[in-house]
Amino acid sequence: MSATVATPGADELCAYCESRIFDHDPICVRDCDDGCGSPEYFCNYACLSAYIEENGLTTGNACAWDPDDRDCG
Question: Are 27 and 41 in contact, with CB atoms under 8 Å apart?
């Protein structure tokens, strides 16, 4: 899967808090399991983390961790 890389506009807003991303430490995220659609921009990792948590984006997407198991499966 390929994605076009482009710098967002100076007034691009955070997908979570709607702050201008370049006033902070911006992050770009794409869902490349879904065709590498349009990027989502976040002003920092805290907003990305909150967005992931509030939208349940980790549910079902990770294996169960067992400290005694060497494989994640």
Answer: yes
